[in-house]
Amino acid sequence: MKNSMKKLVLCTLALLCVVDYASAQLEKERVVQFFAHRGSRFEYPDNENTMLAFRSSYERGARGFETDVRMTKDGDLILSHDESLYRTTGIDLQTEDLTTAECLKIKTKGGEPLALCQELVDYLADKDGLYVEWEIKTVPSLYTQAMLDDLCDKLYKMAMAKRAPNSEYLFTSFDKRALRTMKRLHPDATLMMLKDHPCTPAILMEAYDMGIMRVGCRMDGTTRGVIKLGHKLGMIVSLWPGGTKEDFLLGAALGSDAMCCDRFFEVGEWARENMPFIRLKGIVYPDEQKCDAKAESKKCDKKAKK
Predict the structure, then answer these.
(1) Angle at the Cα of 167 (from 183 to 71), degrees rounded to 5?
(2) The CATH number, out of the four listed (3.20.20.190, 1.20.970.10, 3.10.450.50, 3.60.110.10), of the domain defined by the range 29-194+242-305
(3) What is the pLDDT of residue 86?
(4) What is the pTM of this model?
């Protein structure tokens, strides 16, 4: 019975997507921003938010990324999601209580060192056409306003100083204090308000009133009507979590503008094969990479001849 219901739901969602596509063709191609959550964490188990995950994802074709930024005791920026390092490293400590040197001695359960934010910024610096979400992982119990000022200023200057011309960098957070701080210090920063709830008109207006035109909300419970309202306000709605093909189907049917994914390549390949009417921005498929390599080779040959 459960399997039958699941198939019925999936078929219904797929039908909704097809209907969306048919109407969209009268206007323009449907494009969804797709990005690898923590470097596609389920495809690099025990190594999320490490340079191994980000390098490997890029080499496989990822051009959209999300990562989480915290501070060390020294004030350096480091990539880590949880308040405690226990889940990813087996050590029940917080980066905020450790020096940078102490953090860099710690390895993930997959054997990789924790990554400094500067490492990722440097790695992405010469790579154009990227979409990157830098999530500010701050909570009032750990971060004073002075610390927020320090983190936001450092992060913005660090990331934007090396952003390639055609790359899009967003600064996101569940912490409204962090968003207000970034907006005050750097008014030109592109911000997104994150919520651990379905998208609602109240959430849209909360962000809109702050001058923030992007929201990231939970898929489950979000409706097409709310997303359409966001679009009428000129806002961009991103949905999460994105761990399965079913999540992608739901997000696409709801009309999401962007979706993160923990199985970026598995879901991306599936979507290409089964939903060709939706173009995923943020992934370059293997055959496309070969074409890019050939085009780049021809450019190099022409330069050499000159």
Answers:
(1) 50
(2) 3.20.20.190
(3) 97
(4) 0.87
